[in-house]
Design goal:
By secondary structure, the protein is α/β, with parallel strands linked by helices. 23% of the residues lie in helices and 28% in strands. The strands form two sheets. It has a seven-stranded mixed β-sheet with strand order 1-2-3-4-5-6-7, covered by helices on one side. A six-stranded mixed β-sheet has the order 8-9-10-11-12-13. The termini are far apart.
């Protein structure tokens, strides 16, 4: 069930864990205009109902990336502004989406929802056009950066070096922000201390994230066990890469 996890003078943030892969969906609501954006929806009707019940207008959909579990809910929301980075086409994304970001890696453009202004950062590595959204007291990091680690880089379109560069960029950027801003990931995984929160502060992230703490040592970075897995998804990615090289 959607829970309001943060309220500021300008914004409400709702979080819900949905689907077989336990995706964390995030709804940002502008309190002044009552316009809302859903980030990585798993079920379209679920969020349409939430907004209808509360008198909010679901105006936009933002995808951190185009993996199935983060874009499934776009179906049913095609009449909204559906935003994705154009480089997701490099891993085969062809919609449904009707708006594109085109900023280069490790840069941002500003995105508005009502009077809220959020920075849309291109942070590739998990996928070619992965986005991280920063502003108004929150960091929505998708699968680029989890609370205690980062997303894998062995899926089709993933790149271990791009992921490291993106995390260095984000780490440096986050150090300039208020330490009590909240980080919202795409999935919930246990931290090394055994806790399993669905959000933490920037201060806690910078202190405890295993991936961020390995960035300055390439050998340590390359040995992180969560960057690649020997599973069916990895095998599927190998077949996709082989097909793309033949075409």
């Amino acid at each position: 069930m959607a829970e309001c996890i943060l309220e500021t003078p300008k914004m409400l943030v709702l979080q819900a864990q949905l689907g077989d892969w336990d995706n964390l969906n995030h709804l940002l609501v502008c309190k002044e205009t009552r316009k809302a954006v859903i980030i990585d929806p798993f079920f379209s009707q679920y969020w349409l109902d939430v907004c209808s019940t509360n008198g909010w207008e679901l105006e936009q959909v933002w995808l951190t990336h185009s993996h199935w579990d983060h874009s499934k809910g776009v179906e049913g929301l095609e009449h909204k502004q559906v935003w994705v980075h154009r480089d997701e086409s490099l891993r085969g994304w062809s919609g449904p989406s009707n708006r594109e970001w085109s900023n280069v890696a490790n840069s941002f453009v500003k995105q508005k929802i009502g009077v809220l202004e959020i920075e849309a950062h291109c942070t590739p590595g998990h996928t070619p056009g992965h986005m991280t959204f920063i502003g108004e007291g929150v960091v929505v990091s998708g699968d680029c950066m989890f609370l205690g680690r980062c997303g894998r880089t062995d899926l089709f379109g993933g790149d271990i070096d791009a992921q490291r560069n993106s995390l260095i960029y984000l780490r440096d950027y986050l150090t300039m922000l208020p330490s009590d801003w909240v980080v919202l990931p795409g999935h919930q995984y246990k931290l090394l201390n055994g806790q399993n929160p669905s959000f933490i502060t920037i201060e806690e992230l910078l202190s405890n994230n295993e991936a961020l703490n390995a960035l300055d040592d390439r050998e340590k970075w390359n040995s992180l066990e969560f960057l690649a897995f020997d599973d069916s998804l990895s095998e599927s990615a190998r077949r996709e890469r082989a097909r793309s090289q033949k075409s």
